[in-house]
Amino acid sequence: MYISYKWLQDFIKLPKSYSPGKLADDLTLHTVEVEGIYDLSEKYNLVVVGEVLEIKKHPQADKLNLALVNVGEKEPLKIVCGADNLESGQRVVVAKIGSKLPNGLEILEAKIRGEISQGMICAEDELGLGLNHDGIMVLSSKAKIGLNLAKYLNLDDTIIEIDNKSLSNRPDLWGHYGIARELSVILNTKLFPYEKNLSSINKISELEKNNVLSVKIENSELCPYYSVVKIKKIKIKESSPSIKQRLLAAGINPINNIVDITNYVMLDLGQPLHAFNASLAEKIIVKTLKQNEFFLALDGKEYELSKGSLVIANDKNILSIAGIMGGQESGINEQCSEIIIESANFNPISVRKTSQSLGLRTEASSRFEKSLDPALCQLALRRALDLIKQESPEMIVETNVSEVGSDKLSDVYVDLNLDWLEKRIGQRIEKEEVVKTLKGLGFESEENENNILNLKVPSWRATKDISLAEDILEEVVRLYGFDKIELTLPYSKISAPILSASHIIERELKDSLAKDIAFTEVHTHVFVNSKQLNNLGINHSHYLSVKNPLSENLSLLRQSLAPNILEAIKFNQARYQKIELFELGSVYLSFAGKFYTDNKQQKYLPHQEKRLILAIASLESDFEILNQLKGHLESLFSRLYRFRPEINYEAVETSFSWANTSLSANFIVEGKILGTINKLKEESAKKLGIKKSVILAEINYSSLADILSSLKTKNYTPSAKFPSLIRDLAFIVDNNISYKDIKMELENFHQFVKSVELFDVYQGEKLGNDKKSLAFHVVYKSLERTLTTKEVDEIQTQLISYLENKYQAQIRNF
Known about the structure:
CATH class of the largest domain: Alpha Beta
Strand content: 25-35%
Radius of gyration: 47 Å
């Protein structure tokens, strides 16, 4: 939006020392963002008033003339011109060599059909002063020769360009008066009442109240207020220089006196108006279209209006697109002697939608989109009639204003606690200054006993801008000046975050696996897909599915970490001979025994838990890989438990369809099952494309973290003063007897048996197919004395006899 420095002075008195640059700085600091400052006189640099001294026919072209033009220099300029209205003695606009016109044309000395041309005599459209190109622009005979065109036209003004985005929530700033109101508070200067401009008309009409036009609003939600008035004895002509100059300064081309006045009021007050040819608008209907219709607009283009678009119409035709653009048929032209002026308030969302769908953005739609104050309608209409009266004194207001709907908004009140304001700002602003600032912006205030201001929001700020105390705070601070707020850092005591036990355990676990054991951590998707699960033989009918997956490969939530870590092994197997990976992540179970009651029905809830998986893929034998994995687990648990816990393995029938049944076991730590070890069976490996042997251990991390969090610190126990005696025993037992059972019997047989460790398992032809040999280190020790060999031998003889009777165990002697 463009704001004229001179225009602003209609409403406020700016200090003499005040400059456009300072104004731009103040607006940027307090109200809106200024994008640029332009001196209009520079637009017409080297464009001056000239006098045509002599005209001759061009010897080489019938339609061209050679003009000798005085521009106030020592020698007149020779200019080739083809305008039909060129006459000797005229005062004209001359663009001298080196000038650049608003349309981008740069004037250079040139030869035209063999004759030198030292400039250009300009038409109105070439100067950006209108659309007329019928001939050159002829000036008053009193125009001073050599005078810069900007000074002649009173365009020696400065334009402030405001970024439209910073006006999005400020409908009151879309006119010069709104900007002047802001500046009056910033500069602490008086704002002139807008009504002072209404010098010619105090009342719109003295006619009978029933002398009005017929107006009907079919959708009051999209058009809450609509008003029109009819005027006769109008002569359509060029606007007076003062109006044209203002419009040009603001970037709008003059058209005719009526259209120019509607645009002038819009730029003045912020309220768009529209003028119709009265012969086509005796009856006005504001309605939404029931079907798509085509409409020829003022810009000469035909638009297809969609069903539901809000339009202004008569009984037969569409007159205008509400709030956007009028129609060519009902437009103002030289034949009009009677016109209708419309001043209305339209729903901002409706205008925005229609504007976007048509790709048609106008000065009017830009303002209506921002939720204009309906109270502006009557003020704008009175101002337009006042200007028309000044331009056409013979005009007559034929009807009273036809009004439908209400131009009043519900009053909006906001309470402002001054103590709260001080705390929020961080410093005190005196109550008198707060009240003065808000009063200057149009707020009415009353103070109650608790240092609270009860504020009535002005109608031009109540449409979408001000509704909370925080909004008032912003008003106070921005006009007080952000630069006046003391820069103090907020006091805040910073302390290290308290880490949860689970977080500490997780960090220690990852450090142990990555640094001590040298596994590589991976992070895979929490999603799996049906093809992936089918290759592993997993029934996924009970898996949780995503309603709107990013792709088919990310459609199901995983219930195990194994599928995705196997994909990682497949991806990396060609790069490494041996792969050792781990992942700590969540799995998502369709239910886990947890339910809630709804209408006396039990419904199971999905359950999320954390798990840890370790995987080794290698070309080594299964036995070697298994021993390596067991060793890593023992090392990991020793670090986590802070002592070497007892770890046992229990063969189980696997529940995983992809696992080898002969190599599946639960591992039990300190008597609690924490996870399983499984080998990927060859059939599944082939389907996945994995060419290495893979063994995985999946641990319930949630259970592990709970156990570790509840562990009590173990007290130091000094080493026994007396030596121990070690015996090695190898028992031959049936294959179906677990080593764990034998180990437990050894440990619990006598108080002097302090520890038992399995160090060898043997199966072979000498033993038979259904037998195995289990070899143990058995440590004997007393805390009170040194044991004798005889005592230990006697205990061991009894032990062997006991195992022979209970398990038919035989001592292996070969």
